[in-house]
Specification:
Length: 382
C-alpha cells in the first residue's frame, strides 16, 4: 500500500511556515511515516523540506505566490483556506494532484487528505482509492464521496464528538474506522531545562478567543512578567501589543517566532498560558510547551481536557481566580515530569504505532471476513 499524501498548495512545506499549523502537521506526518513499511508520496507546492519517497510538485512557487501572495510572517498560510476567493486556484492544484496520482497509484493504495472538503474533488475523481483524513482539527470532513466511504483520524475525542454533533451524525455509520490519534511532535525541536527564568508565556494568534488578554490578567495578578509571541499584531510598544480584536498589556511582545526561538522561549518559561475560550480541537502549543518541560494552564474545555493532566502536565481552570491559583500551583510540578508525559504520549515514536494500526485496519477493508470491503455494511449502504 502506497500512501499518497496531499499537501497544501498555498504554503511552502517548510519550517518557515511555523505559524500555519496545518503545514507543520504535514511536515511532522512525513517525518513520522517516511522510511517505514509503506512508500510515501507527497503532492504539494514546489518548495519542500518534508521527507518522503517522492515529492511531486502540483503548484510551482511562481504560481503559489501569484495565487496566494508573498509570504507574510504575520499570517502565514491562513488565507489559502478562503475557498470563496481561491476556489479557481484550488481546483487547478487538485486536478494536478489527480493527474499525478493516477500515474503512480494501485487500486489498494491510500489517499491521505489534509484539507478536508477543500480536497474532496481529488477523492471523488479517484474512486479506486481508500480515503483517509489524518490530523482532523476542522469541521469540514469528507462524509461521503463518489466511489465509497472516507475515514478520519481526529486530533482529540473532544473534537470528534463536536464534529459528529455539528454534522448531526448521531449514528456516524463509519463502523470503527474513524479513530482518534493525537498530533505528534519531534522532540529534537525542543530544549529541556530543569529550571526556568521566571516569566509566563503566551504563544498563539493574537485574537480574542485565544485569550492573550486573559493571560495578561493572570500574569498581572501574580506580579510575573508575561512574554507574548504570535502573528496578528498591528502595533506594539513598551509593555503592550495591539491586534485587530484585542489589546494585551502588560506584556513583552516578541513577535512571530520560528522553531528555534519558540524552543528557547518555552524552555525558559515558568508556565505557558493557553486560555482559549473556544473548543480547541487540539491546541498544539500546549504539547509543544510540555516537550520543553514547561507546565501548561488552560481552560477546562476542548482537547485540553485530554492533554493537560492536573498535577502532571499542568492545570485547567474555569474562572480567573482559578486560573491565577492554577498558574501558581503549576510552578511546583517537576519539569522532568511534564517532559516525560509529552514524550510518552505525543512524540513521533509514541504516535507512529497508532497510525500504523489505523492503516492496517483500513488495508483490511480489502481483505476477508468482517472487514472485507465487499461485506462491509457501510459499502453496502453506499
Amino acid at each position: 500500500m502506497t500512501l499518497h499524501l496531499l499537501g497544501l498548495p498555498h504554503t511552502r512545506t517548510t519550517s518557515e511556515f511555523a505559524s500555519c499549523a496545518y503545514t507543520q502537521r504535514v511536515i511532522k506526518l512525513c517525518r513520522m511515516l517516511h522510511g517505514r513499511d509503506r512508500p510515501l508520496v507527497l503532492y504539494g507546492s514546489e518548495i519542500n523540506e518534508a521527507p518522503c519517497d517522492e515529492h511531486v510538485t502540483i503548484v510551482s512557487e511562481a504560481q503559489r505566490e501569484a495565487w496566494f501572495g508573498p509570504v507574510n510572517e504575520n499570517d502565514l498560510g491562513r488565507g489559502g483556506f478562503d475557498w470563496l476567493h481561491t476556489s479557481e486556484w484550488w481546483r487547478h492544484a487538485n486536478q494536478n494532484a489527480v493527474n499525478a496520482i493516477r500515474e503512480r497509484m494501485d487500486d489498494k493504495d491510500l489517499l491521505l487528505v489534509t484539507a478536508g472538503q477543500t480536497q474532496q474533488p481529488v477523492a471523488d475523481l479517484l474512486p479506486q482509492l481508500t480515503v483517509a483524513e489524518p490530523m482532523v482539527g476542522y469541521k469540514g470532513i469528507i462524509t461521503s464521496r463518489q466511489g465509497g466511504p472516507a475515514f478520519a483520524a481526529f486530533e482529540s475525542y473532544a473534537h470528534q464528538h463536536f464534529v459528529y454533533g455539528w454534522l448531526n451524525m448521531e449514528f456516524p455509520g463509519r463502523y470503527g474506522y474513524d479513530v482518534v490519534i493525537p498530533n505528534q511532535f519531534d522532540p529534537a525541536e525542543f530544549t529541556f531545562r530543569p529550571d526556568h527564568d521566571g516569566y509566563l508565556l503566551f504563544v498563539g494568534r493574537l485574537i480574542l478567543h485565544k485569550g492573550p488578554q486573559i493571560a495578561a490578567q493572570i500574569a498581572q495578578a501574580l506580579d510575573m512578567p508575561l512574554k507574548v509571541a504570535g502573528p496578528g499584531a498591528l502595533r506594539s510598544g513598551d509593555g503592550w501589543v495591539e491586534a485587530a480584536e484585542v489589546r494585551v498589556e502588560p506584556c513583552e511582545y516578541v513577535g512571530t517566532v520560528g522553531i528555534e526561538q519558540r524552543a528557547e522561549l518555552m524552555a525558559g518559561a515558568a508556565c505557558l498560558l493557553a486560555p482559549t475560550t473556544y473548543l480547541e480541537p487540539f491546541g498544539g502549543v500546549a504539547v509543544e510547551a510540555m516537550m520543553s518541560g514547561c507546565p501548561v494552564v488552560t481552560f477546562d474545555t476542548g482537547a485540553f481536557t485530554e492533554t493537560v493532566v492536573p498535577g502532571v502536565s499542568g492545570y485547567r481552570f474555569h474562572t480567573l481566580q482559578e486560573g491565577v491559583d492554577a498558574t501558581s500551583k503549576s510552578l511546583d510540578i517537576p519539569r522532568a515530569v511534564v517532559r516525560e508525559h509529552a514524550m510518552r504520549n505525543y512524540s513521533l515514536d509514541a504516535v507512529r504505532p497508532r497510525y500504523q494500526q489505523w492503516f492496517d485496519n483500513l488495508d483490511g477493508l480489502w481483505g476477508e471476513g468482517w472487514t472485507a470491503l465487499t461485506d462491509h455494511p457501510l459499502t453496502m449502504q453506499a
